[in-house]
Design brief:
This protein is an all-alpha fold and 328 residues long. Helices cover 87% and strands 0% of the residues.
Length: 328
């Protein structure tokens, strides 16, 4: 886990390799040399990113610049809105209602949550400008990993016996499918959430719909905090436009999150990782309770890996017990 933080390019490269390795294998099966297949896949990705960049980056850059510029004003607006809501809309309530339900404290918590979310978004946007080295190194590392994958694995496996190497290859191959399916599943879910949110905001008439959809998709990868950040931003922007618009945005966000959490994630992740939707939900809750955010992120592939290893262990145990050399 710590390598994720100290060596982010290697972590990103591993994800990239998982994503494109199936396409490389498909090209290799069609008589294309592996090195040429890797180069073709990277050229395809570069072409797609270039096309998307030409189409969307100017608009995204403009929207992000406006959002970052307006963050201080947005914080002031939210603080003023909460104060006005307390003094105006709730002024008719008697004092004992405020004391019993602790409304003042709850409003303060809401305000602090909004401010923290905006601060986190601001930090994320600012820190993303320092990732140029990661952007350059990630595809380079992924290229060499894919190119020399067999040699790297052979070097790692060389100290083990042939029988043990075969077992490790089988287990690691199955786990590799689980992890690759998990990563692809997460990206598919993020893509769906981003598209649904962006299109919904555009239909409602909210400005910066493209950027809002992008932020919603990216933050949705982060469990618990991600949907909050991705959902609060369009609500705040809607409040600054028209209060009634914020109501429609809240309805949109609730619908999108319900579709994501109850339909998209369980179905896509269960298909990608090979787990039943109930087991997917259980693994997220169980490992999230044990390890927090990291457990929620990696709970699904960890559960799949545990099941795979358990199957091999049980199979080895059955073979051991059925061996004629074991006394009855």
């Amino acid at each position: 886990m710590y390598s994720v933080y100290f060596f982010p390019p290697f972590f990103y490269a591993l994800i990239l390799a998982y994503l494109i390795n199936p396409l490389v294998r498909w090209l290799a099966r069609h008589k294309i040399p592996r090195l040429l297949a890797i180069i073709l896949v990277f050229l395809l990705i570069l072409g797609i990113l270039t096309g998307l960049g030409i189409a969307f980056i100017p608009r995204l850059a403009s929207d992000i610049a406006v959002l970052v510029r307006d963050i201080p004003d947005t914080v002031k607006f939210i603080t003023s809105f909460i104060d006005d809501f307390r003094e105006g809309r709730l002024a008719f309530l008697p004092d004992f209602v405020f004391d019993f339900f602790d409304i003042d404290e709850e409003l303060k918590k809401i305000g602090q949550l909004v401010r923290d979310s905006l601060d986190n978004l601001y930090s994320l946007l600012i820190s993303s400008t320092g990732t140029l080295l990661d952007i350059v190194m990630t595809p380079l590392i992924a290229f060499y990993y894919l190119k020399d994958k067999d040699r790297i694995i052979k070097t790692i496996m060389s100290p083990f016996s042939s029988d043990l190497r075969q077992k490790i290859r089988s287990i690691s191959g199955d786990i590799d499918k689980v992890l690759g399916g998990f990563i692809r599943g997460q990206l598919i879910v993020a893509l769906f959430v981003g598209i649904l949110t962006g299109v919904g905001c555009a239909i409602i008439g909210l400005p910066h719909a493209l950027t809002i959809g992008l932020i919603a998709g990216l933050t949705n990868i982060i469990p618990y905090f991600g949907p909050w950040i991705g959902g609060i931003i369009p609500v705040i922007l809607a409040l600054m436009e028209k209060p009634i618009l914020a109501l429609w945005v809240v309805i949109l966000i609730v619908i999108v999150q319900q579709i994501e959490s109850n339909l998209l994630s369980p179905q896509i992740m269960s298909h990608s990782v090979g787990l039943h939707p109930l087991l997917v939900i259980f693994s997220i809750l169980f490992f999230g309770h044990l390890f927090g955010i990291a457990g929620m992120i990696f709970g699904v592939p960890l559960t799949g890996s545990i099941i795979i290893i358990s199957r091999y262990v049980l199979e080895a145990r059955r073979h051991f017990r059925s061996s004629p050399f074991i006394s009855r």
